[in-house]
Amino acid sequence: MNLYGDTRSGNCYKIKLLASLLDIRMVWIGIDILAGDTREEDFLGRNPNGKIPLLELDDGRFLAESNAILHYLAGGSDWLPQDRFEHAKVLQWQYFEQYSHEPYIAVARFISLYLGLPDERKAEYEAKKEGGYKALKVMERQLEATPYLIGDRPTIADISLYAYTHVAHEGGFSLSTFPGIRAWLERIQALPGYVSLGDEALPA
């Protein structure tokens, strides 16, 4: 399989991390979103929505959206529970990530890391703080009660939220008052097969 992605993107990192944890081999194809790679006709022919990550299967089909790709790769493994309620809880946390976490923490990081915090976007950057800390408080409450987001073992819900939470400081968020989250980050990093965001892409 081929994975089209940007090495700094948390959404792309989700896929790389899960692939490493499951020992799934794929070819990394670098995409530079700031250079306009996702707006090229060649890329739009693969994903009309013009976003990464994008997974190309062995049979030539394409799958977009990071959490959808996680579901595809995790199918049949312990990372995606078969129990209906636990499966729904995974989805619950992934929807939370997309609607209550990423729009604040990931966007603040994008403005700072990718764009260099330009003056014209500083007000937007600061406005992300309230929503971001609210999301972190929700996670902290859960992680004070359970080691992982839906219980005693990690799932792709943890992968989804780990990606941008562990680099939240790059968006101006401090985790100093969130001991549950910090302990959870350490548990994820201790998993066999863990790779960091900055690690080289997985070999074919």
State the gist of this model.
With 204 residues, this protein is α+β, with helices and mostly antiparallel strands. Helices cover 50% and strands 7% of the residues.
Q: Give the spatial strand order of the biggest sheet.
A: 2-1-3-4
Count of extended strands? 4
Which architecture of the largest domain does the CATH hierarchy give at level 2?
Answer: Up-down Bundle
And the CATH topology of the largest domain? Glutathione S-transferase Yfyf (Class Pi), Chain A, domain 2
Low-confidence stretches: none
Could you tell me the strand content as a percent range?
5-15%
Continuous helix count: 7
Give the domain tally: 2
CATH class of the largest domain: Mainly Alpha
Kindly, what is the distance between the CA atoms of the first and last residues, rounded to a whole number of angstroms? 8 Å
Sequence of secondary-structure elements: EHEHEEHHHHH
Helix amount, in percent?
A: 40-55%
From the spread of the alpha carbons, the general shape counts as: globular
Assembly status:
single chain
Major beta sheet, specifics?
4 strands, mixed
Rg, Å, rounded: 17 Å
Mean pLDDT: 95
SSE-based structural type: alpha+beta
Q: What does this protein look like?
A:
The protein is an alpha+beta fold and 204 residues long. It has 2 domains: 2-74, Glutaredoxin, CATH 3.40.30; 84-189, Glutathione S-transferase Yfyf (Class Pi), Chain A, domain 2. It is 50% helix and 7% strand. It has helices at residues 10-21, 41-44, 66-74, 84-114, 122-145, 156-165, 179-189, and strands spanning 2-5, 27-30, 54-56, 62-64. α4 runs parallel beside α6 (156-165). It is globular. The protein starts with a strand and ends in a 15-residue tail after the last helix. The mean pLDDT is 95.
